[in-house]
């Protein structure tokens, strides 16, 4: 009769077996594989769209270079022309530009997949905070990238100003695209650093007193970071990156101050309530 017994239904995953939602190593690897597959599909679809709309995307990417004075262009002419250094360079330029566009357009997809892979390890209140900070991270990153795009021509103009009068600057397309991507990424990620400080404070990892104690060193470090991280290495770009970072840092510091005050007040109120409850309990 034992053979006639109905076998139990298999569980969907190890997370349903464990009341704490913990997963085995193989389940984590399967989850990582599925997340990576979705990220790759999103980037591939965005790259295909980038190939279809290559011309307007290219005009947008070359905008900072085309805003340069005529003296810095090839042969001093009015056309903003870049140099292609090989026969297959045109093909790889199309693929590179389309991939860059696909990576940016698919950023909500791969950011969400990374977030969805990490959040199961967070507590409920930490997940609630992560929703808020994820919503703030996207506009902050876009704001930093926009600032880099708008100020990039100033850095290019300053650097090309060192070219001697009897020399012609031949700017390779690949070098220009690499410079553009580094500027966009560095500015975008830098605008997220103050948000990271506030997030660590909400999680209880970093206190306001610790940040305030090292405030001058943090500000000085931001200037050093801006000087080292910017590809152009010019003072204008350094200030364009450092000053907004410092402003956002002070905003994050104010949030940390308010949050710690409220958290300390709540903890003190709970301690007083517990003490009153213990004092009012009759001794056995």
Question: Can you tell me about this structure?
Answer:
This protein has 284 residues and is mainly α. It has one domain. Helix 2 packs across helix 5. It is flat, with a radius of gyration of 27 Å. The termini are far apart. The N terminus is likely disordered.
Number of strands: 0
Give the SSE string: HHHHHHHHHHHH
State the major sheet.
none
Q: How many separate structural domains?
A: 1
Structural class: mainly alpha
Poorly predicted tracts of residues: 1-17
Estimate what percentage of residues fall within beta strands.
under 5%
- Count of runs of 4 or more consecutive helical residues: 12
The chain-level mean pLDDT equals 80
Radius of gyration: 27 Å
Question: End-to-end distance, in Å?
Answer: 58 Å
Helix content: over 70%
Shape: flat
List the topology elements.
Layout: H1 14-17, H2 25-52, H3 54-61, H4 63-66, H5 89-105, H6 107-118, H7 124-160, H8 173-190, H9 193-202, H10 208-213, H11 215-229, H12 235-280
Helix pairs in contact: 2-5, 2-6, 5-8, 7-8, 7-12, 9-12, 11-12
Quick take:
With 284 residues, the protein is mainly alpha-helical.
What attributes characterize this protein structure?
284 residues, mainly alpha, 12 helices, 0% strand, flat, disordered N terminus
